[in-house]
Amino acid sequence: PLGLNESVLPTQRSSLSNAGGNFFMAGAGFSFIFSWLLMLLVLITFVLGGNIYMLVCESWRSQQLFQLLDTPGLIPGFNLSELLGQEGGTVNFSEIYRQCQRNAALWQTLHLDQRVSLDELLNISQYTGEISTAFEKMDITLSPISLLNQSQRDLLLNASRAGQPPDFTPTLEQLDQNVTQGSLLDLAAELEQLADKAGTDVKEDLKADARKLRELDKEMQTSFSGLLQSLKENIHLVQSGAAQLEAQTKAALDKANETQEFLEREMANIIKNETWAFLEELLDFFETYISWAKSRLTGDVARCKPLAQTLDNVEAITCDYILDSLNAFWFSLGWCTFFLLPSIILAVKLAKFYRRMDIADVY
User: Fold this and answer.
1) Is a pLDDT exceeding 90 seen at residue 28?
2) CA 82 to CA 223: how far, in whole Å?
3) In angstroms, rounded to a whole number, what is the distance separating the alpha carbons of residues 81 and 280?
4) Which residues lie across from 339 on neighbouring strands?
């Protein structure tokens, strides 16, 4: 537009105007020469981007892609159920994807229980029978058990016979009498009688001695009566206990004989029963551990939610970033190609108003 001047004749147009017209024609020529490359690029990117977006992205979001993959015979010779060792199984990609989105374990997702039976593989009962048979064949032999030998028995019997106390009858008869050999009260009474007959010079002394004797008798009765009674009871207790000592010793020896016979007869069975009880407790521990391992293996090990998230991330990167950008690219190039034809027409039409003419076209 800077070089265009309507008042100037076409044969006298300036170089700037002529250069503008030449550029118009050059642009039209380059468009004719290279526009097929642009059209081919638009076609290729359209076919790739559009079809991939519709076939992959749209079918992924509508789950039609999984339905297509689950179609029997889509891939000749490929069967997912047979590949996983499940004859007549119904495992498909849609089910695996949905279960992985729920963070299920691969054991449940792939139905591995149909291929590997954990109940048979981890069945401890098949070993319990062998253990029981081997345990029944076990023979327990113990060395002879001797609680008391004959010399010890004789020693106990002799000690029980030698432990008899002496005869306490004279001692008890003496304890039933007064503490002193004679009665202090009688002696005090005799002294009082002598005091009545004696002279005045010894009368008071005799009466004082009689009072002391009475006080001494009273003090002795108070001090020794409880002790003497306790001594009598202890003597009777010793006599009664000593009388039973030999019988108790014989009873204890009889119990020892019975215990020794019981141990010799039942000790092997007792050891065997207790060992089997301990073995059963160990087997219960193993069964508990196996149940825990089965529950962990089938429900917690190898959860496949990361696999589903990886596929979702791949889909997001491919569709939302790569394909969207590719589709925007061919869409923009397509509009450029669409406007290429009118631009060529306008360039050719405008060129004659800018280029310097050899002959003026006047009417």
Assistant:
1) yes
2) 111
3) 41
4) none
- pLDDT tens per residue, range 306-337: 887 888 888 888 888 888 888 899 899 999 88
Distance, CA of 263 to CA of 265 (rounded, Å)? 5
What is d(CA 321, CA 317) in angstroms, rounded to the nearest whole number?
Answer: 5
Q: CB–CB of 8/14 below 8 Å?
A: yes
Which residues face 303 on adjacent strands?
Answer: 105
The C-alpha atoms of residue 201 and residue 233 are separated, in whole angstroms, by: 49
**What tokens were used for 41?**
């690029």
Element (H or E) spanning 31, and its range?
A: helix 15-52
- Can you read off the two tokens belonging to residue 190? 């005799």
- Token pair, residue 195, equals 């005091």
Q: How far is Cα 315 from Cα 293, in angstroms, rounded to an integer?
A: 36
Q: Cα separation of 115 and 80, whole Å?
A: 13
286-314: pLDDT as tens digits = 888 888 888 787 777 777 788 878 888 88
pLDDT, one tens digit per residue, over 258-284 is 887 777 777 878 888 888 888 888 888
Find which of 43-52, 94-103, 140-149 is predicted with most confidence, using mean pLDDT.
Answer: 43-52
CA distance 354 to 1: 9
97/272 Cα distance (integer angstroms): 56
The label of the residue with tokens 């160990």 reads 282
Distances (CA, A) of 151 to 157, 162, 256, 305: 10, 16, 14, 82
User: Would you place residue 79 in the very low, low, confident or very high pLDDT band (cuts 50, 70, 90)?
Assistant: low
Which residues sit opposite 105 in a β-bridge? 303
